[in-house]
Amino acid sequence: MRGEILAAAGRLLAELGGEDGLTIRGVARAVGIAPASIYQHFSDRAELVRGLLDHEYARLRDSMRAAEESLGETDVVGRVRAQIHAYCGFAMENPGHYRLMLANGASRPDPDARAEGPLLDVIDRLAAGFERCVEAGHPLRVTPGRAAAVVFVGAHGRVALFHSVLHRTGAELVEPFVDELVSLVFA
Known about the structure:
Layout: H1 2-16, H2 24-31, H3 35-38, H4 45-69, H5 76-93, H6 95-103, H7 118-135, H8 144-163, H9 171-184
Helix pairs in contact: 1-2, 1-4, 4-5, 5-7, 5-8, 5-9, 7-8, 8-9
């Protein structure tokens, strides 16, 4: 039942374009259960949103992993490109989910500690990919972590433009832009 609740919440998030209108009652209606039934799985709306966030990050991770694994292990640069293409595709196809994920993607309970969270896990995945590129003889202009951050931030900015200023036009320009970003970090 938890999976059905999260799937319904995800559909509502897509319809609403964000989490603001997401309610326990609305999710219950979408699942076809009484609102009280949701409380067996989530104590309140905040916990439902956290569960949805985890669910969506799992979908994104699976998408990035599948894209990466669709290429041979020796195509390390192609695998990095595939990961960032999957990230951009997910973000462009799921604007409400993307906004939720960005708004809740990282935390730093201790100001001296490294921030953590699923959004940073995405950057770490990219950094690991760039590290494999270096190991395979593809030198970078910057460290693998910096390369991942540059590519991620650039891709995020391009997707944000797609959603806002460009009013969801220019999708065909995102992939070549991201490919150029990836190329720029190599020496």
